[in-house]
User: Fold these one by one.
Assistant:
Number 1:
Amino acid sequence: MLNRPASKPNDLNAFWMPFTANRQFKQAPRMFVSAKDMHYTTDDGREVLDATSGLWCVNAGHCRPKITEAIQRQAAELDYAPAFQMGHPIAFEFASKLAAIAPQGMDHVFYTNSGSESVETALKIALAYHRAKGDGSRFRLIGRERGYHGVNFGGISVGGIVANRKMFGTLLTGVDHLPHTHLPEHNSFTRGEPETGEDLADALERIVTLHDASTIAAVIVEPVAGSTGVLIPPKGYLKRLRNICDKHGILLIFDEVITGFGRLGTPFAADYFDVIPDIMTTAKGVTNGVIPMGAVFVKKEIHDAFMKGPEHLIEFFHGYTYSGNPIACAAGIATLETYQEEGLLTRGAELAHYWEDALHSLKDARHVIDIRNIGLVGAIELEPMAGQPTKRAFTAFLKAFEEGVLIRTTGDIIALSPPLIVEHEQIDRIVDCIRSVLAEID
Ligand SMILES: Cc1ncc(COP(=O)(O)O)c(C=O)c1O
């Protein structure tokens, strides 16, 4: 037996933290040790109001008993079962329940373990679908500048955030990008969908002219770009994109990893914008963030295109060891029940006006150059510090944490997405905290 000295219980060295300024963190750690409903508790016993649903995922709030109990029960009954050539009932039950709340016609579900895996799965389904139909020349994938589609190679290839791409070589070939839709010169301080920019969808026509439609498999966009700072689509933009895709036989993929499960006040962004994609990626809120899981929804025609050939053969060579993991499915069913019992898939619509007014009351706060909102999502963009981009927002994040509110920042943008159980007083608290923090920092 190896006889290594035991590491110190709270040694911070070994864990290389994701998307974190590791050295800064380890000098002044910020630790959560428990959570309940709208609040975290820190290791020094302070309550911190969660204005970000963890990482855009804890839509029903923290440690909800129904979800916790479902996980405990399932872990004791059937902890794991393979999903390759074998099944277990709860995975089918959950898929049917998901299909029942999905936009019309999206009645098949492929399970993954994260948003990144959902994106890879969706891109692969798109390519393989065309090939299954005998249209194998459609190999190009079109993303969008400032898009975030997770961190795997397909996702960073179609994604449009330079820091996530520039270190990692040539990425996927055959990828092109639409322009982003952020037009601050026209749309600053817009409440909801901006007026200007619908015609940015026409860039897809130019890409078609450049490459020919017969080479393009799919376009992937976030209906509302979240991680890049809450970029809300201009009025009519998504409908126009849908029409251009239809005209050229290109599949439209909505990445709803953030917007899915009630974030905009509708079950999915597809419902909010009344635009149904061909494929929809989800994760995060599918299990309230409690157990890693993702789900890719596809239209019947896409699923059915694979269901041919000899019946003993696997139709789609793709899947994960944990696809449809029983404990994740149990968490997912309990999450869906919690959403439905408490009306959370549409509660965002009831709160949206209050949320909007509260956020826009920060218009005259120090450093603020733009405010954007839709459903229960908001962004407050700050003037960057001269020569030190991101520093001002990061300082605001640290200060807000000290003052008991968890916000999230990306670049110099504060992005907010509280759990859908948030109350008016808690919205006030979030906004008051940000106002006082901005007044204090350079
Ligand atoms: C739109 C979108 N797609 C994909 C992902 C990646 O999800 P994950 O971190 O679960 O891999 C995210 C994560 O924030 C996201 O916002």
Note: The two ends are 55 Å apart (CA to CA).
Number 2:
Amino acid sequence: MNDFQEKIGIANPDWLMSAREKLCLIGLLNTMKPDRVIELGYHRGGATFWLSKFAKKVITVDVNEFVANAEKEYPNVEAWNYPTLEAIDRIKEENLFFDLAIIDADHSRKAVSADVKGLLEHADIILMHDSFNPDCRKGMIDTLESQKSHAYYLDFMPSVSKGDGLWGGLALAWKSKTAGPSIEFYQEKSPYPPTALQNSLRLIPKMNSIKDSIFIFLGSFISKSKILGGRLRGR
Ligand SMILES: C[S@@+](CC[C@H](N)C(=O)[O-])C[C@H]1O[C@@H](n2cnc3c(N)ncnc32)[C@H](O)[C@@H]1O
């Protein structure tokens, strides 16, 4: 797939999305041509490059110091180098509103839930990365199922089980008169449960973790035996 990504100009190891997620974001940006975008989770700016191309104004937020580069590279991008919760406080204080928000920062359930909650009042369309990660998905649901402003679709862009676990996927929420869970097709079934089941049955990551535990146990057993042997010889 990398040569395909190179062929069409989206290959970038610093952009932590799959080819289909990248094309989904580029397509959405090209269709929306948003005035104002907020990005929670800059990393190394893989997505920010495209945001800056299509949006009039972008704010990107990250706790890592690389985010400061965004302002130097793109005249229409403002970098906020602090946690998303502080960014959300500022958005509330200044009463900012965005056509598009992208959430891809702290991936814990609590943090994802708080980021979504914080942006609901301030964004028309919200794109949430890693909707196929079990914790992130729970965090999204925690907030989305109890709000009344946005419709949402957790399987907007499904993901697959990978060697490093179940990551990726894009969920979408949009301001709507019919807030709540949405589907596209009559009687459609979510691809998430079978993918999560498939991921839970993966043997290699489990075997690696058992192997690591055995090595840790053996290492500590051998070092304790050496200490004990030394003490006994010393007596
Ligand atoms: C998965 S990366 C973002 C990837 C990026 N959206 C892309 O497409 O390449 C997550 C980023 O969120 C940042 N991050 C994690 N927790 C954060 C927090 N509480 N506030 C702000 N940034 C955070 C990390 O420093 C990291 O750069």
Note: The first strand starts at residue 36 and ends at 40.
